[in-house]
Amino acid sequence: MKRIVGIILIVVGVLLYLFFRNYDGNFLPYPTLWFFIGIILAIIGFKLFVTSKSKTEKEIEESYQSEIKRLKENGDKISVEFKDCEIVSSNYHVELPKSSNYRVQAWDSLYDNGKSAENIEINQSRIIYKNENSEDNNVFISPLINKDEITLSFRLSNYKSTVIYVDKLDKDLYYFDLELLDE
């Protein structure tokens, strides 16, 4: 709904801007005011459009949150101490162009002096827990955490343990509770 309102505000704002940009008539008073109202409406509409989530994004987020809630309420709880976990790092480099303009990128690619792109290091880690107490020897892997291995180890040293919630029927469906890292 926010997206539709945003699009309508953008259209109305642009139309007001275009109409009152060169308006010389006497029928509507204060054409400069209407000109700026058009610009403001377009900006508000753009902000509404950009900040609103699409319906599918909301549905996916709600489904994910309800699944986590279901696992927390009904799943088996495995208490995990961080000293028994392994942190695996996955670092890589990405080369991003400094300009978002494709024409500038094309000219830069012809004359590349090494300054047209920026090399950025991406640090990601996962926490792996091998449950050796069960007969299945399950391995639980956390989702990607946007921290390097040292920073994550330091953050986890403040906490002793966490919980993994496992579905009773499907042992491959689990939630590695790392909400303590959000604090």
Walk me through the structure.
This protein has helices spanning 2-21, 31-51, 55-74, 102-110, 149-156; strands at 76-81, 86-97, 117-130, 139-141, 161-166, 174-176. It has 183 residues and is of the alpha+beta class. Strand 3 (117-130) and strand 4 (139-141) form a beta hairpin. The longest helix is centred in the first third of the chain and has 21 residues, at 31-51. It is elongated and about 85 Å long. The protein folds into 2 domains: 2-51; 74-182, no CATH class. It contains 5 helices and 6 strands; from the N terminus they run H-H-H-E-E-H-E-E-H-E-E. The chain has a 3-stranded antiparallel sheet with strand order 1-5-6, with helices on one face. A 3-stranded antiparallel sheet has the order 2-3-4, covered by helices on one side. Helix 1 runs antiparallel to helix 2 (31-51). The chain crosses the membrane at residues 5-20, 32-50.
Helix content: 40-55%
Q: What is the H-and-E element order?
A: HHHEEHEEHEE
Main β sheet profile: 3 strands, antiparallel
Rg, rounded, reads 26 Å
Transmembrane segments: 5-20, 32-50
Keywords: Membrane, Transmembrane, Transmembrane helix
Summarize the structure.
The chain is α+β, with helices and mostly antiparallel strands and 183 residues long. It is 43% helix and 24% strand. The two termini are 32 Å apart.
